User: Which sequence fits this backbone?
């Protein structure tokens, strides 16, 4: 039987970020922790999904990274001289491969995925975070008398148990991607953490269908055309739409979050948080490129669904409401539309805390994003006896 003080379930961005913050600020053995995830390696879900969507530049600025220090990624880039920049207007004038060696998109200092990922891998390596990673999927959580929790886990055919004093759930959307019902095509690829690599031979000389008109859908369409696809049809329920952020950023600070927290019930907060997210939007450079390809007849925007003649079909249509499979005891905890109803310290039950998309009842629209991990850490870590805040790190730190 494995035993730990704190068990983080999920080694995606949120679980890895919380692990990094615990590693950096913990004070004693009381703060020993493990990060459990069925995927091989920390951040595997992020690395796979982003590489499948062919995203080149992130929405967030250089201030956001896997390190708790807001200066870390910027300092890393400066130290390595990785500062080659382009502007949003130059983006559409270049082809996909010419943009591959660039580091920053202006305005707002948005890092390339390559720079962001190189920093993340180096941070995980230098902080030895993989030492805290454990492979396996949690399948049942139940309270132990006076001993925290017992977590039944599965790794391939093996079933094993972990006892933990405290648990942090960082499970993303519970891997519940939206796949339109009428798609029954052997060449369908759902772009998600379990998907396979998307290579140019899949699209060369093909008529490609992309389901979902957000950043991932737009970016994979641009990549497909630059990789030799004959044309692309983007199927989306809405016309093309542009937004720098995928949520209303005023919710990061008091301007909107104060009113959000004054809503009288968790149900109202969950509905309001969902309304103030902006799924299915493209950043300016992707939006402009998609419109440019549309004018040249290479991209067609269709407000319906694929008819079955095109292949391959790439599905980037977001996620259903979360669906957890963690046993009866977890199912008995209060929730609404699949989202846990949390206390303001982000606890769902005694010593069980939640970060990421599952925390929207308290964190609001930014909950799933990188900044949502900071906002969650600020509430969860003090409950574990660890001080955590924006102000802690010095400007010259990389770690
Ligand atoms: C192309 C792209 C670009 C993006 N750009 C930005 C950006 O610029 N800025 C920004 O803020 N956000 C961005 N996002 C959104 C951001 O990536 C996600 O919101 C974030 O990665 C979610 O992290 P997570 O850890 O909550 O979820 P996930 O990455 O889904 O991780 C959840 C983990 O939990 C594991 N898990 C699931 N069930 C179990 C279980 N039972 N037991 C153990 N482990 C389990 C999964 O295997 C997975 O590894 C982007 C997303 C994409 C796809």
Assistant:
């Amino acid at each position: 039987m494995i035993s730990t003080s704190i068990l983080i379930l999920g080694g995606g961005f949120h679980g890895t970020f919380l692990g990094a913050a615990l590693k950096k600020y913990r004070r004693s053995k009381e703060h020993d922790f493990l990060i459990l995830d069925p995927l091989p390696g920390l951040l595997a879900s992020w690395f796979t999904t982003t590489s499948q969507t062919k995203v080149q530049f992130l929405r967030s600025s250089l201030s956001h990274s896997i390190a708790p220090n807001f200066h870390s990624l910027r300092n890393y880039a400066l130290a390595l001289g990785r500062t080659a920049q382009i502007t949003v207007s130059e983006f559409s004038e270049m082809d996909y491969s010419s943009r591959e060696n660039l580091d920053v998109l202006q305005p707002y200092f948005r890092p390339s995925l390559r720079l962001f990922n190189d920093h993340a891998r180096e941070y995980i390596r230098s902080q030895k975070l993989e030492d805290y990673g454990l492979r396996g999927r949690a399948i049942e959580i139940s309270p132990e008398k006076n001993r925290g929790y017992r977590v039944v886990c599965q790794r391939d055919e093996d079933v094993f148990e972990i006892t933990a004093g405290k648990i942090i759930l960082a499970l993303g959307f519970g891997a519940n991607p939206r796949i339109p019902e009428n798609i029954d095509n052997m060449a369908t690829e759902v772009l998600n953490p379990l998907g396979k690599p998307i290579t140019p031979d899949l699209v060369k000389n093909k008529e490609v269908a992309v389901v979902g008109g957000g950043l991932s859908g737009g970016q994979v369409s641009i990549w497909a055309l630059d990789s030799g696809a004959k044309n692309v049809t983007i199927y989306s329920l809405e016309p093309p739409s542009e937004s720098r952020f995928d949520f209303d950023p005023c919710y990061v600070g008091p301007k909107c979050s104060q009113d959000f927290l004054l809503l009288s019930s968790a149900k109202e907060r969950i509905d309001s948080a969902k309304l103030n997210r902006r799924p299915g939007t493209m950043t300016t450079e992707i939006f402009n490129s998609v419109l440019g390809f549309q004018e040249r007849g290479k991209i067609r925007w269709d407000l319906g669904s694929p008819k079955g003649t095109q292949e391959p079909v790439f599905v980037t249509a977001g996620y259903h409401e979360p669906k957890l499979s963690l046993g009866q005891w977890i199912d008995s905890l209060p929730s609404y539309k699949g989202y846990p109803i949390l206390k303001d310290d982000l606890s769902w039950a005694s010593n069980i805390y939640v970060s990421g998309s599952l925390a929207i009842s308290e964190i609001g629209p930014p909950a799933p994003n990188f900044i949502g991990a900071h906002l969650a850490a600020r509430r969860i870590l003090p409950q574990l006896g660890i001080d955590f805040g924006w102000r802690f790190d010095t400007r010259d730190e990389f770690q």
In short: Residues 9-15, 36-39, 45-46, 49-50, 53, 55, 58-60, 137-138, 170-172, 175, 193, 216, 356-357, 368-370 surround flavin-adenine dinucleotide (CB under 6 Å). The mean pLDDT is 93. The longest helix spans residues 113-126.
